Amino acid sequence: MGKHDTHLVWDWNGTLLDDFTAVIGATNASFAEIGLEPITAERYRDLYCMPIPAFYERLMGRLPTDAEWLVMDETFHRHYVERRAGCALTEGVEELLTQWTLAGRSQSILSMYEHDQLVPVVRGYGIHQHFVRVDGRTGPSGGTKAVHMERHLAALADEGRIAPEHTVVIGDAVDDALAAAHVGARAVLYTGGSHSRKSLEEVGVPVVDSLADAVDLAQSIAR
Fold first, then answer.
1. Which of 164, 185, 195, 218 gives 20 to 30 Å between its CA and that of 64?
2. Model-wide pTM > 0.90
3. Is 49 helix (H, G, I), strand (E, B) or coil?
4. pLDDT of 16-27, one tens digit each?
Protein backbone atom coordinates (compact mmCIF):
# COMPACT_ATOMS: atom_id res chain seq x y z
CA MET A 1 0.00 0.00 0.00
CA GLY A 2 1.05 3.58 -0.44
CA LYS A 3 2.45 5.03 2.74
CA HIS A 4 -0.29 7.67 2.98
CA ASP A 5 -3.26 5.34 2.37
CA THR A 6 -5.73 5.18 5.22
CA HIS A 7 -5.54 2.05 7.35
CA LEU A 8 -8.72 0.93 9.16
CA VAL A 9 -8.64 -0.76 12.56
CA TRP A 10 -12.03 -2.37 13.05
CA ASP A 11 -13.57 -3.32 16.36
CA TRP A 12 -15.32 -6.70 16.34
CA ASN A 13 -18.14 -7.05 18.88
CA GLY A 14 -20.95 -4.60 18.19
CA THR A 15 -19.21 -3.27 15.09
CA LEU A 16 -18.39 -5.88 12.46
CA LEU A 17 -20.42 -8.47 14.38
CA ASP A 18 -24.03 -7.55 15.17
CA ASP A 19 -24.11 -9.23 18.58
CA PHE A 20 -25.77 -6.70 20.89
CA THR A 21 -28.71 -9.03 21.58
CA ALA A 22 -26.28 -11.76 22.62
CA VAL A 23 -24.40 -9.32 24.86
CA ILE A 24 -27.60 -8.22 26.63
CA GLY A 25 -28.68 -11.83 27.16
CA ALA A 26 -25.31 -12.83 28.54
CA THR A 27 -25.13 -9.74 30.74
CA ASN A 28 -28.51 -10.46 32.29
CA ALA A 29 -27.50 -14.06 32.86
CA SER A 30 -24.42 -12.87 34.75
CA PHE A 31 -26.53 -10.44 36.80
CA ALA A 32 -28.93 -13.21 37.77
CA GLU A 33 -26.02 -15.21 39.21
CA ILE A 34 -25.54 -12.60 41.95
CA GLY A 35 -29.17 -11.58 42.38
CA LEU A 36 -29.29 -8.40 40.26
CA GLU A 37 -32.36 -7.39 38.26
CA PRO A 38 -32.10 -7.68 34.45
CA ILE A 39 -31.08 -4.60 32.48
CA THR A 40 -32.86 -3.20 29.42
CA ALA A 41 -31.02 -2.48 26.18
CA GLU A 42 -31.66 1.24 26.63
CA ARG A 43 -30.22 1.32 30.15
CA TYR A 44 -27.24 -0.75 29.05
CA ARG A 45 -26.40 1.71 26.28
CA ASP A 46 -26.86 4.72 28.57
CA LEU A 47 -24.53 3.38 31.29
CA TYR A 48 -21.99 1.24 29.43
CA CYS A 49 -18.33 2.10 29.91
CA MET A 50 -14.93 0.46 30.09
CA PRO A 51 -13.40 -1.13 32.05
CA ILE A 52 -16.32 -3.48 32.68
CA PRO A 53 -16.05 -3.39 36.50
CA ALA A 54 -16.71 0.36 36.29
CA PHE A 55 -19.83 -0.37 34.23
CA TYR A 56 -21.00 -2.79 36.90
CA GLU A 57 -20.33 -0.12 39.53
CA ARG A 58 -22.70 2.24 37.71
CA LEU A 59 -25.37 -0.43 37.80
CA MET A 60 -24.82 -1.71 41.35
CA GLY A 61 -23.85 1.52 43.08
CA ARG A 62 -20.57 -0.11 44.09
CA LEU A 63 -17.76 -2.10 42.57
CA PRO A 64 -18.38 -5.85 42.50
CA THR A 65 -16.32 -7.82 44.97
CA ASP A 66 -13.53 -9.97 43.57
CA ALA A 67 -15.71 -13.03 44.06
CA GLU A 68 -18.68 -11.40 42.33
CA TRP A 69 -16.51 -10.28 39.42
CA LEU A 70 -15.19 -13.80 38.84
CA VAL A 71 -18.71 -15.24 38.84
CA MET A 72 -20.12 -12.51 36.58
CA ASP A 73 -17.22 -12.65 34.12
CA GLU A 74 -17.30 -16.43 33.80
CA THR A 75 -21.08 -16.50 33.48
CA PHE A 76 -21.14 -13.73 30.89
CA HIS A 77 -18.60 -15.43 28.62
CA ARG A 78 -20.27 -18.83 28.92
CA HIS A 79 -23.68 -17.48 27.97
CA TYR A 80 -22.25 -15.19 25.29
CA VAL A 81 -20.62 -18.10 23.47
CA GLU A 82 -23.96 -19.93 23.45
CA ARG A 83 -25.76 -16.92 21.94
CA ARG A 84 -23.04 -15.77 19.55
CA ALA A 85 -23.69 -18.62 17.13
CA GLY A 86 -26.95 -16.95 16.11
CA CYS A 87 -25.36 -13.56 15.38
CA ALA A 88 -24.74 -12.27 11.88
CA LEU A 89 -22.27 -9.75 10.55
CA THR A 90 -23.54 -6.18 10.55
CA GLU A 91 -25.45 -5.36 7.38
CA GLY A 92 -23.17 -4.47 4.48
CA VAL A 93 -19.93 -5.54 6.17
CA GLU A 94 -18.80 -8.02 3.55
CA GLU A 95 -19.20 -5.51 0.72
CA LEU A 96 -17.41 -2.75 2.67
CA LEU A 97 -14.47 -5.00 3.48
CA THR A 98 -14.25 -6.28 -0.09
CA GLN A 99 -14.29 -2.81 -1.61
CA TRP A 100 -11.61 -1.55 0.80
CA THR A 101 -9.41 -4.51 -0.12
CA LEU A 102 -9.99 -4.06 -3.85
CA ALA A 103 -8.97 -0.41 -3.53
CA GLY A 104 -5.55 -1.60 -2.34
CA ARG A 105 -5.98 -0.34 1.21
CA SER A 106 -5.29 -2.29 4.39
CA GLN A 107 -7.45 -3.08 7.39
CA SER A 108 -7.16 -5.03 10.61
CA ILE A 109 -9.21 -6.08 13.63
CA LEU A 110 -8.46 -5.24 17.25
CA SER A 111 -10.97 -6.57 19.76
CA MET A 112 -11.26 -6.99 23.50
CA TYR A 113 -12.65 -10.46 22.81
CA GLU A 114 -10.12 -13.07 23.94
CA HIS A 115 -7.56 -13.65 21.16
CA ASP A 116 -7.70 -17.43 20.97
CA GLN A 117 -11.48 -17.28 20.59
CA LEU A 118 -11.56 -14.27 18.25
CA VAL A 119 -9.33 -15.66 15.50
CA PRO A 120 -11.38 -18.80 14.74
CA VAL A 121 -14.65 -16.85 15.03
CA VAL A 122 -13.53 -14.29 12.42
CA ARG A 123 -12.37 -17.12 10.19
CA GLY A 124 -15.73 -18.83 10.63
CA TYR A 125 -17.53 -15.81 9.17
CA GLY A 126 -15.38 -16.08 6.03
CA ILE A 127 -13.91 -12.56 6.11
CA HIS A 128 -10.44 -13.22 7.54
CA GLN A 129 -8.73 -12.74 4.18
CA HIS A 130 -9.47 -9.01 4.25
CA PHE A 131 -7.30 -8.32 7.33
CA VAL A 132 -3.55 -7.94 7.62
CA ARG A 133 -3.84 -8.66 11.36
CA VAL A 134 -6.53 -9.98 13.69
CA ASP A 135 -5.71 -9.32 17.35
CA GLY A 136 -7.83 -10.00 20.39
CA ARG A 137 -7.31 -9.37 24.06
CA THR A 138 -4.47 -11.17 25.79
CA GLY A 139 -4.32 -11.36 29.57
CA PRO A 140 -7.21 -10.97 32.01
CA SER A 141 -10.53 -9.42 31.06
CA GLY A 142 -11.83 -6.20 32.57
CA GLY A 143 -9.33 -3.68 31.19
CA THR A 144 -9.36 -1.05 28.46
CA LYS A 145 -8.20 -1.17 24.84
CA ALA A 146 -5.40 1.43 24.90
CA VAL A 147 -2.52 -0.92 25.72
CA HIS A 148 -3.75 -3.47 23.19
CA MET A 149 -3.96 -0.72 20.57
CA GLU A 150 -0.33 0.18 21.24
CA ARG A 151 0.73 -3.41 20.61
CA HIS A 152 -1.50 -3.75 17.55
CA LEU A 153 -0.13 -0.65 15.81
CA ALA A 154 3.43 -1.46 16.83
CA ALA A 155 3.11 -4.86 15.17
CA LEU A 156 1.69 -3.27 12.02
CA ALA A 157 4.47 -0.68 11.98
CA ASP A 158 7.07 -3.43 12.32
CA GLU A 159 5.57 -5.02 9.23
CA GLY A 160 5.98 -1.69 7.41
CA ARG A 161 2.25 -1.33 6.91
CA ILE A 162 0.88 1.71 8.68
CA ALA A 163 1.50 4.79 10.77
CA PRO A 164 -0.90 6.01 13.48
CA GLU A 165 -1.50 9.35 11.77
CA HIS A 166 -2.89 7.51 8.73
CA THR A 167 -5.03 5.16 10.83
CA VAL A 168 -8.74 5.37 11.67
CA VAL A 169 -10.33 3.19 14.33
CA ILE A 170 -13.97 2.24 13.71
CA GLY A 171 -15.83 0.96 16.76
CA ASP A 172 -19.01 1.15 18.79
CA ALA A 173 -17.56 2.19 22.16
CA VAL A 174 -16.10 5.27 23.80
CA ASP A 175 -13.13 3.05 24.65
CA ASP A 176 -12.36 2.72 20.92
CA ALA A 177 -12.02 6.50 20.59
CA LEU A 178 -9.88 6.72 23.73
CA ALA A 179 -7.59 3.95 22.48
CA ALA A 180 -7.24 5.70 19.10
CA ALA A 181 -6.34 9.00 20.78
CA HIS A 182 -3.84 7.19 22.98
CA VAL A 183 -1.77 6.18 19.94
CA GLY A 184 -2.35 9.28 17.81
CA ALA A 185 -4.94 7.77 15.47
CA ARG A 186 -8.40 9.06 14.54
CA ALA A 187 -11.73 7.40 15.36
CA VAL A 188 -15.27 7.13 14.02
CA LEU A 189 -17.91 5.69 16.35
CA TYR A 190 -20.91 3.63 15.26
CA THR A 191 -24.26 3.72 17.06
CA GLY A 192 -25.26 0.10 16.41
CA GLY A 193 -23.49 -1.41 19.40
CA SER A 194 -22.88 -0.83 23.09
CA HIS A 195 -23.49 2.92 23.56
CA SER A 196 -26.28 5.42 23.08
CA ARG A 197 -25.64 8.13 20.51
CA LYS A 198 -25.59 10.71 23.30
CA SER A 199 -22.76 8.98 25.17
CA LEU A 200 -20.75 8.54 21.97
CA GLU A 201 -21.14 12.18 20.99
CA GLU A 202 -19.68 13.30 24.31
CA VAL A 203 -16.26 12.01 23.19
CA GLY A 204 -15.95 14.62 20.45
CA VAL A 205 -15.25 12.33 17.48
CA PRO A 206 -17.55 11.70 14.49
CA VAL A 207 -20.56 9.48 15.25
CA VAL A 208 -22.45 7.65 12.49
CA ASP A 209 -25.44 5.34 12.18
CA SER A 210 -23.98 3.00 9.54
CA LEU A 211 -20.63 1.39 8.86
CA ALA A 212 -20.80 2.65 5.27
CA ASP A 213 -20.83 6.20 6.63
CA ALA A 214 -17.96 5.30 8.95
CA VAL A 215 -15.81 4.17 6.03
CA ASP A 216 -16.65 7.27 4.00
CA LEU A 217 -15.65 9.49 6.92
CA ALA A 218 -12.49 7.53 7.58
CA GLN A 219 -11.18 8.31 4.11
CA SER A 220 -11.58 12.04 4.71
CA ILE A 221 -10.29 12.47 8.27
CA ALA A 222 -7.01 10.52 8.26
CA ARG A 223 -4.08 12.89 7.85
1. 195
2. yes
3. coil
4. 999 999 999 999
